[in-house]
Amino acid sequence: MATQSQVLLEYLPKSEGLLPKWQLVVATIAVFNTIQNFATLKLTRRLYTGVPSASITALQARTFAVWTLTSAVVRGYAAYNINNKTIYDMALLTYLIAFGHFTSEICFFRTAKINLPVLSPVIVSTASLIWMLRQYDFYVAP
């Protein structure tokens, strides 16, 4: 009889290396972030500390939730199809968009200040971008 950990391992991506598993981890975290954005404004307001709290609306949080869910789907799909060039490229672009968004909110629009809630997605998007670019030829045949 299989143990619980053996059963869970069956659901992990089968492709070689850690990048597919990382994609799954990030996608899973994004699903939880999506739920949080639909449920409350509290954590979203911690991201955008450069504007009055009242200017962060439920509509903005739901829009952010839909974007986050979309990126979770793309990254989750990439976890299981990491060798597909189109899917790999789409996942890579989700990190570029996230990096661009948070960097612009910090540096240009000044709606976000450097704090842990903002640094987390900046670090994840940056590390993921670098990792995916460096491993491109390994996962996607030229």
TrEMBL record:
It is found in: Endoplasmic reticulum membrane. InterPro entries: Erg28. GO terms for cellular component: endoplasmic reticulum membrane. GO terms for biological process: sterol biosynthetic process. Keywords: Endoplasmic reticulum, Lipid biosynthesis, Lipid metabolism, Membrane, Steroid biosynthesis, Steroid metabolism, Sterol biosynthesis, Sterol metabolism, Transmembrane, Transmembrane helix. It is a multi-pass membrane protein. It holds the Pfam family Erg28. GO terms for molecular function: protein-macromolecule adaptor activity. The chain crosses the membrane at residues 86-102, 114-133. Belongs to the ERG28 family. PANTHER family: ERGOSTEROL BIOSYNTHETIC PROTEIN 28 HOMOLOG, ERGOSTEROL BIOSYNTHETIC PROTEIN 28-RELATED. This is Erg28 like protein-domain-containing protein. The lineage of its organism: Eukaryota, Fungi, Dikarya, Basidiomycota, Agaricomycotina.
